[in-house]
Structures are given as C-alpha cells and as structure tokens.
Specification:
1 helix, 19 strands, seven-stranded mixed β-sheet, single chain, four-stranded antiparallel β-sheet
C-alpha cells in the first residue's frame, strides 16, 4: 500500500479498504477501517496519490508536538554507549499530488491514541503516549501498525543512569519505510542522572528504504528549526 499510485488505486485487507472511484470528471475517495468511514470528493482531471507513514501526532487532532515512549526500566553504566530497539505507533497519511501541489486527503491509524503530560502541570509538555517492549535485536512488526525505533543511548556522566522513557520532538522525525518495515532512528544523550537531550538521525534502517513524505510539508506548514528535545523533567 505504501508508495505512489495513480488515482485508480485500490487496496483491501481484513477490516480495511481504501480506493478511488472515477465518476465523469471527478474522483471519490473512500476509506473504511474497522467500521470508521471516510469519503472525499476530488474535482480533478488526474494526478497521483501518495500513501506513507507520517509523524504519529495527528489523531484525533493536532494536540501536541512530542512523542513519549515508555519502555522497560534499564540502567546504563558510566561512559557507555548502547543501542536498544523500541516500537512507535503508526499513523498513515494519504496525499494527492496535482500540478505541483500536495493536499492531505486523510490520516488514519489502527492504534488507539493516548496522551500524557511529561513534567509538571505548570510547565510540562503534552505528549503522545506509547508503551513499548525493549528489544535487543530488531523485532518483526506489522508495518501498518508499529514502526521500529532504533534508540542509541550515550551516557556522558560518571554515574550509572536509570531510565524508562524517551521524549522525542515531532518536528524532527525522519521516517523511512519499505514493504516490510517502517523505521526511524534517534539519539538520547544523558547529561546527568535526571536530564537528557534527544534528537533524530536522518537515515534509513535498511538499504532501499524510502524517506516518508512529512505531513508538515504536505500541509504547507513552514519548517520548524527545533529538532531536539531536552528531557529535564526526569528519565
């Protein structure tokens, strides 16, 4: 399903269907997911449709710009650098491209959206919440439901550091995909036993993966320079 298609595209799997029907000089987009339906009429002579995973921060509406992934409690020794594999929730966007412009037609997900507050009620950050197992090797995942988050943790302190969550800035997300896997890579630099800085690496997990079209670009929202998140409210 992921990729670029013409407007005659149709896809089906259990409890899900997506496609376009032509009626004269217009197209009708229909999507059904677990009983939830979306329809949209397009007045166009043609074009292309792009379907790819996007930043998981758009449903049920734009509430926040951060993703908090909670994982199994772990400790990392002083001066160490280690990589763990986590999951993140998938949201899928449907874009229509015509005459050099992009229109966001639909965003949907198999996952239930949950949100949380990182920090205090006075100056905390609202974040999309996701609970993930911690893996030593990359797991096999359904690319329509979960993505692979490769997290490299660097302990720059002289102490053992305990942690069980990572907060990531949504505007810096760089998502890659192929038929088998959706992925993104992030860094977590521990600067004290209670503070860390997180950022993303703009690279695919595997050779041949394509870079996903960012939803901010599709909406015509100007780029935001902030791509790092300072976790100063605990790890």
């Amino acid at each position: 399903m992921y990729g670029t298609h013409d407007l005659a595209y149709h896809y089906e799997r259990e409890d899900f269907s997506l496609g376009f029907e032509q009626d004269g000089g217009r197209y009708c987009y229909r999507r059904v997911l677990n009983g939830d339906k979306k329809e949209h009429l397009l007045l166009t002579s043609g074009g292309r449709v792009i379907i790819n995973p996007v930043e998981p921060l758009n449903l049920p509406k734009n509430i926040c710009n951060a993703l908090l992934v909670e994982f199994d409690h772990l400790s990392i020794e002083p001066g160490a650098r280690s990589t763990v594999y986590l999951t993140f929730p998938i949201e899928i966007a449907v874009f229509v491209a015509g005459r050099g412009n992009l229109e966001v037609l639909d965003v949907f997900s198999w996952n239930t959206q949950k949100y949380t507050l990182y920090g205090s009620s006075d100056d905390g950050t609202i974040a999309r919440y996701w609970k993930s197992p911690t893996y030593g090797i990359p797991p096999h995942l359904d690319p329509f439901k979960e993505g692979l988050l490769t997290l490299t943790i660097s302990n720059t302190t002289r102490d053992w550091v305990d942690l069980s969550r990572v907060v990531l800035e949504g505007t810096g997300m760089k998502i890659y995909y192929d038929e088998e896997r959706v992925s993104m890579q992030a860094r977590m630099r521990l600067v004290s036993t209670m503070v860390a800085e997180t950022s993303f690496r703009d690279r695919p997990f595997a050779q041949g993966q394509k870079k996903a079209l960012e939803l901010y670009l599709g909406r015509g929202i100007p780029g935001v320079e902030r791509s790092r998140f300072l976790m100063d409210q605990g790890l």
